[in-house]
Design goal:
Shape: elongated
Number of strands: 4
CATH class of the largest domain: Alpha Beta
Strand order of the largest sheet: 2-1-4-3
Order of helices and strands: HHHHHHEHEHHEEHH
Radius of gyration: 39 Å
Structural class: alpha+beta
Distance between the termini: 90 Å
CATH architecture of the largest domain: Roll
Helix content: 40-55%
Strand content: 5-15%
Largest sheet: 4 strands, antiparallel
Length: about 290
């Protein structure tokens, strides 16, 4: 009787299903454990040790001792473990710093992939011809000035400057020596062949901007600076020339390469972007609180 009951149970399809399910469960459990063990394994082998030693040598200009190499290996293991744990927790997601770092790495990779070939002489010449004004040297100014100190003038310093300007232009031979005309200053009485930037370093940007349209060989002004007012005579204005290409060839080649690299990087990005379905939804301007601020 009992043997028949056992025989019937053994032949029951439900038992077969339960046994098969249990077998699959244990099999997948074993596979998961083996996969987990594989992901938890960290090996610092001979090649990795050599890489660590080379990093040390480049930094300290000598090979590491055995103890130093051991410390570096332990730091490598610590970094790898914490890196994996951070990934497991999803800490790499929605992190602006990590996103930008990965973007930067991709841009470095794309730059290596699309590095332009060296330009030919005709390509450089064509680039130079199309951008000639970009390489024009700045104008240079030689000038004299008379300084008027607002703290040493009892009357309106602007009116004093206008009266002195008329005197100087009526008598071009009148010496504008600071000891006899105008007030004393430690600023140089005359400067020669300076660019606007160099003039601004001495007298200030407002003064430099004012003299760019000043007449040559004639007193004009007054021009304000942080020191006071100045009357100026432009002795010479040298118009900046465009140098010959041979003199700035390295600059042109560097900028040609940068321009073509940027174009190639953009083409690479557009090619990659074409594989994505991009949808951008922006609020209407009237509903954009950022635009209303």
């Amino acid at each position: 009787m009992i043997s028949k009951w056992i025989s019937s149970i053994i032949k029951d399809p439900l038992l077969h299903f339960l046994v098969l399910g249990a077998g699959l469960f244990f099999m997948y459990s074993a596979m998961d454990k083996s996969d987990e063990a594989a992901t938890q394994r960290i090996v610092v082998d001979h090649n990795q040790a050599l890489r660590l030693a080379e990093q040390f040598r480049r930094t300290w200009m000598r090979p590491p001792t055995h103890q130093e190499l051991e410390n570096m290996a332990q730091e490598f293991v610590k970094e790898e473990i914490l890196y994996r744990e951070a990934l497991a927790l999803g800490l790499d997601q929605d992190d602006l710093v990590i996103r930008r770092r990965l973007r930067q790495k991709m841009e470095f990779i794309s730059s290596d992939l699309v590095e332009p070939k060296a330009p030919s002489e005709s390509e450089l010449q064509a680039y130079f011809d199309a951008n000639r004004e970009k390489y024009r040297l700045p104008d240079r100014y030689s000038l004299q000035h008379v300084y008027l100190d607002p703290n040493k003038t009892s009357s309106d310093v602007s009116r004093t400057a206008e009266e002195l300007l008329r005197r100087l232009n009526r008598n071009p031979d009148l010496s504008p020596d600071p000891t006899s005309v105008g007030d004393f200053t430690l600023l140089p009485y005359q400067v020669d062949a300076l660019t606007v930037h160099e003039v601004a370093n001495i007298f200030g940007q407002a003064f430099a901007n004012g003299i760019t349209d000043a007449p040559v060989d004639q007193w004009s002004g007054p021009y304000a600076s942080s020191f006071g007012l100045h009357l100026v005579r432009i002795l010479d204005r040298e118009t900046g020339q465009i140098p010959a290409m041979a003199g700035i060839r390295r600059v042109i080649e560097r900028e040609w390469t940068a321009e073509h690299r940027n174009a190639a990087n953009d083409a690479y990005y557009q090619k990659v972007r074409s594989r994505y379905d991009v949808e951008i939804r922006l609020p209407e301007p009237a509903n954009n609180t950022l635009a209303m601020r």
